[in-house]
Amino acid sequence: MARRLTAALTLAAVLALAACGGSGGGATGTGTGTSGEGGGDLVVSAAASLTTAFQQYAGEVLYPEQVRLSFAGSDELAAQIRQGVKPDVFASANTSLPAALYRAGLVGRPIVFTSNQLVVAIPAEGGRVQTLADLADPGTTIAIGAASVPIGAYTRELLGRLPRAQEQGILANVRSEEPDVKGIVGKLTQGAVDAGFVYWSDVRATGKRLSAIALPPRLEPKVAYAIAVVTGAKHPAAARRFIAGLRHGRGLQILHAAGFDDPPPPGRR
Amino acid sequence: MSRAPAARGGRRPGWFGALLVLALAVALAFLTLPVVAIFVHASPGELLASLGDASARDALRLSLETTTIAIAVIVLVGTPAAYLLATRTFRGRALVVTLVELPLVLPPAVAGIGLLAALGPNGLLGGALDDAGIQLVLQTAGVVVALVFVAAPFHLRAAQSAFAAVDPRWREASRTLGAGEARTFARVAVPAALPGLGAGVALAWGRALGEFGATLMFAGSFRGITQTAPLAIYADFATDFDGALALSAVLVAIAGALLLATKLLTRDADALARA
């Protein structure tokens, strides 16, 4: 029995590897359009909140098999670059991380290419949170981003502008500090928390499962996204084209449709 | 098992022997390099200084608490369950063994999503748990549940083979002398299987200490409540690489000690079985 189990597991592993190898082979096999430079795929490290928009952009405008997208908290991607990881493009959910990398000579001059809006997300079917004021009610549960990830920093910036008692009340209800915005959305859609601070585009990306409570404009932090070509990128020309496409034409349309806005100063929805 | 020393001495190692040595050298270098790098990157003094950080201490304390509770649960329930699997034959036994060992080969993300689907607020038993006033998600209790799920099979497996290695005649003798089954279990089987059981505990403890994905998905990450040491390492590495290294070094030390304990205990178990 044990031997048969081992055989079955081995077979499963081989199939899984074959599947990976298959798609990987396809990716390198059709690599013709990303110009001749360097060979291989254009590697884009992007903030988790850009997941849906960038996947669509890469899929429609470029050959999807020629772009490798890697999504995580912007702070983690920046830390990887500081540790010597070299993607071609770094897109961050703030401007300070790319600026710091630029000062360190690790990326080219960053360009602010889009903006977003911090909102309070709640389950679409309603729950115990209906207004910003409900967040401080005892018993309400909230998920936010960790302090180092942009969504967490924006959230703390906003909370700092609230009256002290309300800020403390909300912080006392925080049940999880997630490493990126996807974690917050996951906790919300699983019903694990009553509310979470996310971007407007994240609410849009869940379809109709979440709805957003807009924040008073005077409290809203300015959420600007910066993008840069990484120093020593293998595909600098393709990286610049990728960035240019986000500022004009299809990439810009996709960002707008996903709930992102023009670079600041943003017009309010 | 008799060794054949003649085959080893005398003959000059050929190309195949050289290949084996090379393969071992590559494997050894590859597998130890990241661990060595953790200790090379920062001096012991820096490591100790980083551990003064309050959030690192909170994470270690939480890791020790949750793994201790998880191991207690695993030992209390897993040991008798393993005894049954080791001493009885019944229809579907192989299937049961396979099912309880399944979490061994599950990716942590699958464990996390499975726990959410089963015990999350919208999960299979979510309503029932809520009615009973039991909260797991985003709670310390949820961390323990995730740890038990991923670590229990390690103990079950080790305990089962430890009990299976106990000479059945001992149990028969015990019963012939009038001891009930419970007494036989407690006085004969468990003491005889003790080294193997200890090894199972050490392995399960090591797996529980390292748990990351299922904990993050099911229990979230909050300092002092659900942020265990591996989660703190992940939370810190972007902003405080040295702090994350220090915490990693502590986990390497604990994991190394647990592995050493396993080795010593299984050696005892082997010696006991041969005796």
Looking at this protein, list some descriptive labels:
heterodimer; A: alpha/beta; D-Maltodextrin-Binding Protein, domain 2; five-stranded mixed β-sheet; globular; B: 275 residues; mainly alpha; 13 helices
N- and C-termini, Cα separation of chain B: 14 Å
By secondary-structure content and strand pairing, the structural class of chain A works out as alpha/beta
Name of the CATH first level of the largest domain in chain A: Alpha Beta
CATH topology of the largest domain in chain A: D-Maltodextrin-Binding Protein, domain 2
- Which range best describes the helical content of chain A: under 10%, 10-25%, 25-40%, 40-55%, 55-70% or over 70%? 40-55%
Rg from Cα of chain B: 22 Å
Report the sheet with the most strands of chain A, covering strand number, pairing sense and barrel closure: 5 strands, mixed
Helix % of chain B is over 70%
CATH superfamily of the largest domain in chain A: Periplasmic binding protein-like II
- Helix- and strand-based class of chain B? mainly alpha
Which overall shape of chain A is indicated by the principal axes computed on the Cα atoms?
globular
- Helix and strand succession of chain B? HHHHHHHHHHHHH
Shape of chain B: globular
How is the quaternary structure best described? heterodimer
Question: Beta fraction of the residues of chain A?
Answer: 15-25%
Using the 3D structure, state the CATH architecture of the largest domain in chain A: 3-Layer(aba) Sandwich
What integer is the average pLDDT of chain B?
88
Number of domains of chain A: 2
